[in-house]
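Name: IS66 family transposase
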Amino acid sequence: MKVTVAHLYKKLEELDRDVVELKKLTDRLATDREYSPILKETFLSEMTKLEDQKSEILGLRVEKATATSKPGKSNAAVMAQTPNEKTKLEPQVLEEPKKPERPVRKY
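Structure predicted for IS66 family transposase:
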């Protein structure tokens, strides 16, 4: 799988933000409600999944391709590859449609 480091960094920030929000929600749950243990378990499960995704991203092997990268764009040509992949990486700049920034709610 070919992705740029910038995309991975943005994804890591998103994962961290989601974990913080789930932690806040977990802390705000009323303990005297019937649904509280179920919600807490669900939130903790989701936080674990997000942390697993984060550790998977941090475990990727990074290769810097310089052969066909544009001057001044060396960061865009950095690719990540899982350790199990045996294929050679080719530099490729991936462009995603820009997503509107979501406001972060503070509780």
